[in-house]
Design a protein that fits this description.
CATH superfamily: Histidine kinase-like ATPase, C-terminal domain
Helix content: 25-40%
Radius of gyration: 14 Å
Structural class: alpha+beta
Strand content: 25-35%
CATH architecture: 2-Layer Sandwich
Strand order of the largest sheet: 1-2-4-3
Distance between the termini: 15 Å
Mean pLDDT: 93
Order of helices and strands: HHEEHHEE
Number of domains: 1
Length: 110
């Protein structure tokens, strides 16, 4: 992941932000959905950066608004993961269907 961020020309700070967001989202995918997939894309052109797509077939998120609120947790953690990941990214889109899974697309731009 970091190598892709370096290849995109992201600063050390931006590399750290996107790697931290990716780590949190991957951990959530494993802990709450039992796994899934991650697609990493190097974006070049008008904008350069990295785009990450996380997809799982887990139980989904029943209340996305609550899940994005700091302090909300269903797993006993601090409840900072999704909101924190969103703050670390320039773009963040979360789609989830209870019983069918979750898809999160986030990007960090140069």
């Amino acid at each position: 992941m970091r190598a892709l961020a370096v290849q995109a020309g992201l600063s050390l700070v931006d590399q750290t932000k996107v790697v931290t967001a990716a780590s949190e989202l991957a951990r959530n995918m494993v802990d709450y959905a039992g796994g899934g997939s991650v697609d990493l894309e190097l974006m070049a052109g008008v904008r350069s950066g990295v785009r990450l797509t996380f997809e799982d077939q887990g139980p989904g998120i029943k209340d996305i608004e609550a899940a994005m609120r700091d302090g909300y947790t269903t797993g006993g953690g601090l409840g900072l993961g999704l909101g924190g990941a969103k703050r670390l990214c320039n773009e963040f889109k979360l789609e989830s269907t209870p019983g069918a899974g979750t898809r999160i697309v986030c990007a960090r731009w140069k």
